[in-house]
Amino acid sequence: MAAFKPLDGQTTSETFQSARDALDVVGRWEWDAGLDRVRADASVALVHNVDPIEAEEGVPLGRYFDSIHADDRARIEDLIRRSAREGTPYLAEHRVTSADGETRWVLVRGRFIGDHAGRPRSGSGILLDITRMRMFEDLADAAAPLLETSPLEVAADHAIAAMYAISALRDPELKVQADALLRTLGRKLALQEVRDRHRHMN
């Protein structure tokens, strides 16, 4: 796993959690493969130990991969390539080292667009911090992506796809509305995930 590098000397578990509580557990991200720049909100940045100001401007994808647990990294790379090649939604759980130095679990849902050769060209989606949910489960079974598709998941996939078109329009009002929709869908997906896991445990 990549070594933990605090954003600054004041970053602690308490300040990290306060920031996340204020921002909600849902984060948004967009990736331009041509420029190799990921633009993300502060929630995604903090979970991946990336400076939120730099994340807003855009940093290389490798900065985010540095925080992914070494045992999960190859699997995530394969899933990204498959999503771009097949044009299918991207859905995965994996571990990261966050800005407070802790190992956390995240659920990432999005879509990657490939070029004519199937190489990733761009991507966007949402991220949920599911660490507390995973505390009550067998972590050894955590790495497998979820395969069942619900109407809520379909709605999230369409909302992510719509974000591509809205971004091209450069309409601030539409972007705010689309962001709000994605965050709402993300929260509902998290609640659905909790219900599904409790049902499978019983």
UniProtKB/TrEMBL annotation:
Lipid biosynthesis found in the keyword field: no
Keywords: Kinase, Phosphoprotein, Plasmid, Transferase
Organism: Methylobacterium radiotolerans (strain ATCC 27329 / DSM 1819 / JCM 2831 / NBRC 15690 / NCIMB 10815 / 0-1)
GO molecular-function terms, A-Z: protein histidine kinase activity
This protein's record includes keyword Transferase: yes
Protein name, per record: histidine kinase
Database matches in PROSITE patterns: PAC
InterPro entries in UniProt: PAS (IPR000014), PAS-assoc_C (IPR000700), PAS-like_dom_sf (IPR035965), PAS_fold_3 (IPR013655), Sensor_kinase/Photoreceptor (IPR052162)
Pfam families assigned to the protein according to its UniProt record, in alphabetical order: PAS_3
Catalytic activity as recorded in UniProt: ATP + protein L-histidine = ADP + protein N-phospho-L-histidine
Enzyme Commission number: 2.7.13.3
Domain PAC residue range list: 90-142
